[in-house]
Amino acid sequence: MSEKKKTFQEINKENRIEWDKLKFDTQLIRAGEDPYPETSHSIRTPIYASKSYTYSSLSELMRNHYHYSRTENPTVYALDNKLATLHKGESSISVASGMAAVHLACSSVLQQRVERIRPNKIKKLFLEPKSKEIPNGIIHTNQYVDIYRLLTKLYPQMGFECKIVNMCDLSEVKKIVDENTRFIFLESPTNPSIDLIDIEACANIIHEVNGKCIVDNTFASPALQCPLELGADLVVESLTKYINGHGDCLGGAIIGPKNEIQNIRLFWHEMQGPVLSPFNAWLILRGIKTLNLRMARHSSNAMKLAQFLEKHPKVVKVAYPGLKSHPGHEIAKKQMKDFSGMIGFELETVEASNKFIELLKLIKVGVSLGDLTSLIEYTSIMTGLELAPWERKAMKTSNTHFRFSVGLEDPDDLRDDLDQALEQI
Description:
By secondary structure, the protein is α/β, with parallel strands linked by helices.
């Protein structure tokens, strides 16, 4: 009698048990890919450039995992498994960008489950005008600008209230949470101000009202911080940044409980279509293998440059979690393994700031972060340009603030470039 063939789900479950036994550096290389039933003995997961998957019969189709690439693709699924393993989450879904990940995660938490309710009952789920039961979410005072715009400009049109508070002050967070608060959305370290927020404390606060804690982990990556272990319910990552690390593609991911990720996949992802291409998934799978090595170098370079900037007489403020002068230094030590490659700093005047950024030679002026190449942006102009003056003021965005993504060049060369520019202003 022939042995019963294992299903795809059974094989994947057995693989995950083995991947969980491995150390982080080994997981970066092997999890999701070795063993992997779709690779046909290839040492690297291939690019599956297919929209459909065909079978010899309907019964065979029903037994298998892949049907249509808007839902799942073998290359992308390898990345999903790797990210879930690295974050110590049950499941993961990779999407087209970091902002797509933020939108799908927030949408899923706010979603009323209406799929199986008859149409004449759905209307009971919609809120009456001026209802006291309007769902709300909480974000940090200095929130990444596109997340700020999503939650304060678009979501209110769909019956949502966004509350803004300084999450570094937990007493203020406690005051603003109420029975209609559906989620706290936070970054730590924050973008662009490099504030540190206590993830575990915020998770505990929102869980008291049965809400969810969503954490954007982009500045840390799973190499330095594991929000799910700190109490977060969902983690979002911009794969574009440190996880890919090579500046050559876009991607995002959501990691969390299996049921929640499955709902995101089959309802939000399939319906709205923010699909990560197999080629981009392959690039990210290639880049992620050196994540731990890169994050160690990003962090050591950033520490040296933060110390240099802190001592320079023409720099009035430096924000780096590794510095003892940072107000969130103790929080960073508690929840991070190292301090990442992001520095915030300010000069004294706008005139000096405008001159400084034009004098840089080695360090490149550009948006984004987490690249091999060092990138700097003049925050108020390059990220905050679309904000009204009153919004920048409310977000406490300084007109002389720079966000510096420290790359993997020799730190002495980067220091010399900063020094020559500062000396000329």
